[in-house]
C-alpha cells in the first residue's frame, strides 16, 4: 500500500517552503493560536460543513463537526472546518435544484484553492449529497462522505408520520374536509421531531444510500439516525479514516468506477429510491467519467426487486425501522449476488469485505428476495413521441390501474395557472383525464422544481379519488407518490414535444412496453412544431444566466456542460507564488 511522505502532502506546498509566501501561510495559522507542529507535515483535512439555521436537517452539524475534528486530531491530522453552501430543501426558492451545481462548483474550487490534503463532506439534505460529491470528484483529493442521518419517526396522536408522504396525504384529507384545524396543527408539530433528514426513502435517504453503496461513506453510515449516539461515533470514525486515506493516497477516481456506479444503481432500485436518484446518479457518474444512461437504469430496474419496505414505495416502515432492521449493509447483503463485491471503498477494503457479518434483524422491513415489496425495481424509464429522450415513473408508488392508461390531456402552461385551476370545483375534469404541467424543467422551472406530483383536482378529491395520471417535465419530491410521469426530456421550454400537446389530445401510458405517447398525427405535430415560438430566457444576469446557458437536460444529469469530465482540459493544481 502507498504511504505518502510528509513532503509529498499537498498542503506542504503551502506550508513547507522557506519563502515569503509560505511565511505568510504559517504566520496566519499561528494567528489562530496553533504552533507549527500542529499543522506542519500533517494531513490537513477540510471539513466541509453544510450547516445553516435554515437547513433544519443539518441542525446537528454544529456539534457533529466537533466529533469529526476529534477523530482527525486523534489520527494525527489537522482539521479545518469550512462552511459550504447549505442548499436546504425546505426553504430554497424557486428550487434547491437550481443550486446543486453551485454547491458542486464551490466544493471543487474550495478544495482546489486551499491547502487541503483530504476532505470530509458533511451533507444529507437532498441536493447536498450530489453537490458535494460531484465537486469533490472533480477536485480529486481523498474524500469521506458523512451523511446527516435520518430524523426520528414522526408521531401525532399515536399515528406514525412520514416526512413529505404524510404531509401530502393529510393535505388531501384536509382539502376533502376530513381533518380539523386542531388535527392539522398536531400533524404540523409532529411530523419533524428531531435533527436529521426526511425519514422516508425520499431523495435524502436515497442519495446517502447511493453514496454508501458507491463506497464513499463508512459502511452502513447512511442508515444511522442523526440523533443516535452511533452517529457521533461515526463522525469521529470519519475523521480518523480520512487521515489514513491521505497517507494511502486513496483518491476518488479509484473508488467511483463503473462497478461502483452500477452497484449504487442496483441498491437504489432495491431500496425504492426517489426518482431524483436518476438525475443525480447520472451527474455523479459523468463527473467520474462513467457512462451511465437512462436505459442502463431501466435495465437494472427490471431485474432488481424492491426489498426495502420503507415508505413511500414500501408500505409500512420508515428509516428508523430500516436502521433497526440492519440498515443498508443488511440490504446489500441480501442482494450481494447482484453487486460487484470487488469494488474498492473508502475503507481500503472491497464492498464484499465491508458486508461481512451484515445481518437482517427484521425481514418484514428488509425483505428476502423471495418476498419482495415489488418484483421489479423502483423506477421505469419511458420513451415515446412525448419524451424521445426519456421520462421516469415510479411504478411501485402508483395505483396499478394506471400502468396502462389512455385519457384526454388537461394541459397547464405554468405552476400558477395549474394552482389557480386545481381548486376550482367547476373545473371540467374526470378521473380519466391526464393532468399535464409544462415549462417546469431544468430551464423552464427554472431549475427543475419538484412540481411533478400535481394535486388531484378538488372536485375529484371530494369524490374520493386520490390518484390520477400526471405528466410533467418537472421532478417530484422523493417523498411523493402517485401515477406521476416526470423528467420528460427534452423539456417543453426548449421546444420538446410536450410543448406541442393540447388539452383534449389523447395520451397513452403503456408501462409494460415503456411507452408514453400522444395519439396525434405526425402531420399535425409538424404544423404545431412550425408554429411553436421559443419563450424569452428566464434570466438576463447572475447565476441564473450561467445556469440557463450551460445546464444539460434531465437524461444527462443536469450538470453544467463545462463541468463534466469530458469537457476541456483539467486545470490541475493552482500555482502558488
Ligand atoms: Fe432536508 Fe427532506 S427537507 S432531507
Automatic annotation (TrEMBL):
UniProt keyword Signal present: no
Documented EC number(s): 4.2.1.25
Coiled coil (UniProt feature): none
Domain Dihydroxy-acid/6-phosphogluconate dehydratase C-terminal span(s) in chain numbering: 364-558
Tagged with keyword Nucleus: no
Any one GO MF annotation of this record: iron-sulfur cluster binding
Top-tier EC class: lyase
Pfam families: ILV_EDD_C, ILVD_EDD_N
All copies of domain Dihydroxy-acid/6-phosphogluconate dehydratase N-terminal, residue ranges: 42-354
Keywords for this protein: Iron, Iron-sulfur, Lyase, Metal-binding
Family note: Belongs to the IlvD/Edd family.
NCBIfam families (alphabetical): PRK06131.1, PRK13016.1, PRK13017.1
Name of the protein described by the UniProt record: L-arabonate dehydratase
Organism field: Roseibium aggregatum
Gene that produces this protein: araC_1
Amino acid at each position: 500500500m502507498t504511504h505518502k511522505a510528509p513532503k509529498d502532502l499537498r498542503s506542504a506546498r503551502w506550508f513547507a517552503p522557506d519563502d515569503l509566501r509560505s511565511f505568510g501561510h504559517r504566520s496566519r495559522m499561528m494567528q489562530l493560536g496553533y504552533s507549527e507542529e500542529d499543522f506542519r507535515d500533517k494531513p490537513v483535512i477540510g471539513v466541509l460543513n453544510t450547516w445553516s439555521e435554515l437547513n433544519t436537517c443539518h441542525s446537528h452539524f454544529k456539534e457533529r463537526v466537533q466529533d469529526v475534528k476529534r477523530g482527525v486530531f486523534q489520527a494525527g491530522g489537522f482539521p479545518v472546518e469550512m462552511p459550504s453552501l447549505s442548499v436546504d430543501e425546505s426553504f430554497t426558492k424557486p428550487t434547491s435544484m437550481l443550486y446543486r451545481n453551485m454547491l458542486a462548483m464551490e466544493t471543487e474550487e474550495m478544495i482546489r484553492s486551499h491547502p487541503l490534503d483530504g476532505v470530509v463532506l458533511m451533507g444529507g439534505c437532498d441536493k447536498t449529497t450530489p453537490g458535494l460529491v460531484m465537486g469533490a470528484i472533480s477536485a480529486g483529493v481523498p474524500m469521506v462522505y458523512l451523511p446527516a442521518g435520518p430524523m426520528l419517526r414522526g408521531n401525532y396522536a399515536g399515528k406514525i408520520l412520514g416526512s413529505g408522504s404524510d404531509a401530502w396525504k393529510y393535505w388531501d384529507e384536509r382539502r376533502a374536509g376530513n381533518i380539523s384545524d386542531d388535527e392539522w396543527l398536531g400533524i404540523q408539530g409532529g411530523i419533524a421531531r428531531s435533527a436529521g433528514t426526511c425519514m422516508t426513502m425520499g431523495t435524502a435517504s436515497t442519495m446517502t444510500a447511493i453514496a454508501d453503496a458507491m463506497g464513499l461513506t463508512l459502511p452502513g453510515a447512511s442508515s444511522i439516525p442523526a440523533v443516535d449516539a452511533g452517529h457521533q461515533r461515526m463522525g469521529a470514525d470519519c475523521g480518523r479514516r480520512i487521515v489514513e486515506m491521505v497517507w494511502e493516497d486513496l483518491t476518488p477516481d479509484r473508488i467511483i468506477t463503473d462497478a461502483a456506479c452500477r452497484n449504487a444503481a442496483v441498491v437504489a432500485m432495491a431500496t425504492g429510491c426517489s426518482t431524483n436518484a436518476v438525475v443525480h446518479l447520472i451527474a455523479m457518474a459523468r463527473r467520474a467519467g462513467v457512462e451511465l444512461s437512462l436505459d442502463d437504469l431501466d435495465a437494472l430496474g427490471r431485474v432488481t426487486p424492491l426489498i426495502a419496505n420503507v415508505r413511500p414505495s414500501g408500505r409500512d416502515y420508515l428509516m428508523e425501522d430500516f436502521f433497526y432492521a440492519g440498515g443498508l449493509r443488511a440490504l446489500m447483503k441480501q442482494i450481494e449476488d447482484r453487486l460487484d463485491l470487488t469494488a474498492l471503498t473508502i475503507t481500503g477494503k472491497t464492498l464484499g469485505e465491508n458486508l461481512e457479518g451484515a445481518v437482517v434483524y427484521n425481514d418484514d422491513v428488509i425483505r428476502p428476495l423471495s418476498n419482495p415489496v415489488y418484483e421489479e425495481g423502483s423506477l421505469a424509464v419511458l420513451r415515446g413521441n412525448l419524451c424521445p429522450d426519456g421520462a421516469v415513473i415510479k411504478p411501485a408508488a402508483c395505483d396499478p390501474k394506471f400502468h396502462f392508461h389512455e385519457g384526454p390531456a388537461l394541459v397547464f402552461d405554468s405552476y400558477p395557472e395549474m394552482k389557480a385551476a386545481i381548486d376550482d370545483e367547476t373545473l371540467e375534469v374526470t378521473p380519466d383525464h391526464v393532468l399535464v404541467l409544462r415549462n417546469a424543467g431544468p430551464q423552464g422551472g427554472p431549475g427543475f422544481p419538484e412540481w411533478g406530483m400535481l394535486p388531484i383536482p378538488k372536485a375529484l378529491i371530494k369524490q374520493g379519488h386520490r390518484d390520477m395520471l400526471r405528466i410533467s417535465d418537472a421532478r417530484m419530491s422523493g417523498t411523493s407518490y402517485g401515477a406521476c410521469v416526470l423528467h420528460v426530456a427534452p423539456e417543453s421550454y426548449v421546444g420538446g414535444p410536450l410543448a406541442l400537446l393540447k388539452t383534449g389530445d389523447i395520451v397513452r401510458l403503456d408501462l409494460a412496453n415503456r411507452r408514453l405517447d400522444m395519439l396525434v398525427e405526425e402531420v399535425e405535430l409538424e404544423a404545431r412544431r412550425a408554429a411553436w415560438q421559443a419563450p424569452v430566457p428566464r434570466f438576463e444576469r447572475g447565476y441564473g444566466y450561467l445556469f440557463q446557458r450551460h445546464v444539460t437536460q434531465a437524461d444527462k444529469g443536469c450538470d453544467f456542460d463545462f463541468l463534466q469530465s469530458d469537457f476541456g482540459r483539467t486545470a490541475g493544481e493552482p500555482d502558488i507564488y
